[in-house]
Structure formats: structure tokens, C-alpha cells
Amino acid sequence: MKKKAIALLMTGVMLAMTACASTGAGPAAAPAEDAAAEAADESAPAEEGKTYNVGICQLVQHVALDAATKGFRDALTEKLGDRVTFDEQNAAGDTATATTICNNLVAENVDLILANATPALQSAAAATNTIPILGTAITEYGVALDIDGFDGTVGGNISGTSDLAPLDAQAAMVSELFPDAKTVGIVYCSAEPNSKYQADTVEKYLQDAGLTVTIYTFADSNDIASVMGEACANNEVLYIPTDNTAASCTEAINNVAQPAGVPIVCGEEGLMSGCGVATLSIDYYGLGYTTGEMAYEILENGKDISTMAIEYYPDPVKEYNPTICEALGITVPDDYAAFEAE
User: Fold this and answer.
1) In this predicted model, what pLDDT tens digit does every residue of 274-297 receive, in sequence order?
2) Residue 64 sits in a domain of what CATH number?
3) Residue 80 falls within a domain, yes or no?
4) Is residue 173 a contact partner of residue 280, using CB atoms and an 8 Å limit?
5) Pairing mode, if any, of strands 212-218 and 237-240?
6) Which domain holds residue 203?
């Protein structure tokens, strides 16, 4: 009995010493353990049957962005069925409204945000650094998010897809379609930084090809007609990059350019369908669908968004608008596909 009592006493002392040692080391060790646990939780697949609420902030309604949103929703719905719901909102082209939408989505504590177009991405990035954000129809993430030395991965809580088609190939289309042209005007909205990036890049390619290039900018839809009038009066061909404001005002653009007999080469299909003769086409539905697949990997399979590189549309297609080409008497090469409105 004495031996048993002594053994129990020694065991108690050892347990007390161990507890004291643990208490002493606790403050230094706990954060690392907590961080490891959090990392494990973040990379773990979601529990079976979990439901998700996904917020969507689309900058403005036009063909390309509408298609990207539809592709995104279709991809997630096909994979998750009724386990995913969407809070889809449109900012009607107003950046302040996009900011309000994104702040509200954060207040709702949505599981993920789709930011469709650059100002929507900027608003979402300013609203949260924890909720996963996927961009789509973003031309250049380094420009959109002011990242120096952008290497293809944003990091943090942001990734997504880009609608950037090769700008050198777009510039080459101008000379290919209009070999006798000497003057080219580039028109875009000054409020869109990615439009400026495209315009500056294409300007250099066109100048290297021996063309005289003039850049024209409009502040918003109210001065498109006057800017287009000046550009058409002084140039043989126009180029309009991927630009959301321009894409939402194609009728106003075409009402000036077509009567003036000035063809427009465009940065994307939606813009071309309303006012252009040709483009190097991106499939925006496919782009949005890819973004939806990325969202599924994040939500359901626990993929770390900070390591996900920006994805690009792999095979842009040369495309022309038969209606406008016919009106302007333009014949395109055989390797251009005719645009067919759905």
C-alpha cells in the first residue's frame, strides 16, 4: 500500500510539472498550432451536402458580360445543383454602385464573389480581403489591381479569368484588312484603366507598322457621339479595345461610324456585333464557365485561391461582322469566321 501511494504521489507530481511546462510554452506555441489548424481547415474539402450563397457583381449589361455571368452560373449549377444560390446584381455602369453592391455582399457574408469586369473587381477587392473573389472579363489583373511585376498569380483572396486576346494579333488585323490605310484612331473610355493599357499597347504595334495613330477618349456615354465624330473625320480606320462603356453603347457608335464609312476593328465580339467589322474573338460564355469551375474547386474541394493562377481563353478566333462589312463594301480573308447572332 505504501509503495502504491508513493507511486501515485510521484505520478501526480510529474503531471503537475508537465502542466506547468505546457503553460510556460503555451503563448509561443499556440499561434503556430492555430495557424496550422486553420490552414488545414482551409484546404479541406467541404462537408457533404453543404450549401453556398454566391454573390455576383456585374458592372453593366451587355452581350459579353452577360455571357460570362451565364457561363459562371451554369458551371456552378451543373456541379452543385440546388446547393448553390446566387445574389446577382448589376451596377448599371456605375462604379459607386458596384462598390455598394460589393459591400452589401460582404455584409451578407456570401461564400464567394464573382466580379464581372474591372471596376467590379476593384470594388470587391476594396470590400474584403477574406471572402474569395473571382474576376472574369478582366483584361489585365496587374493593371486592374495596381500590381507591380505581376507574374500571373494575384495571391491573397483573388484569382479569376482574363479576356485578353493577343494585342499584337489585333493590331496586325488592321493592316491585314486595310493595307492601304495610313491613319488609325483608337477610341476608348478614359475611366477604364484596362482600356488604356490595351490602347497604349496597340498604339505601339501600329506605329511600328508605319501607321499614324491618334488616341481619342470619352469620359462616359454622354460624349461618345462627339468623340466618334472627331475620330471618324480624321482617320481611315478605328480601333476600339475591350471596353465596357463602349460595348454598352454600340448603337451610338455605329450611328456615327457607318454613315461616315469608317470601319472599326474591335477588341471583343460583343462590341464588334454592334459596331465593328472584325475582332479576335473571345468566347465569354466559355470564359465565365471556366471561372465557375474555379469557384467549384474553391468552394467544394477547398482549393487555395491564393495559389490559383489567372486563366486565359486558349484559342481566340478571327471573326467578322457580315452585315457591317457588306454595308461598307469590305471583303475579308477566308480565315475569318462570320459572326452569327444568337
Assistant:
1) 999 999 988 999 999 999 999 999
2) 3.40.50.2300
3) yes
4) yes
5) unpaired
6) 167-281+317-338
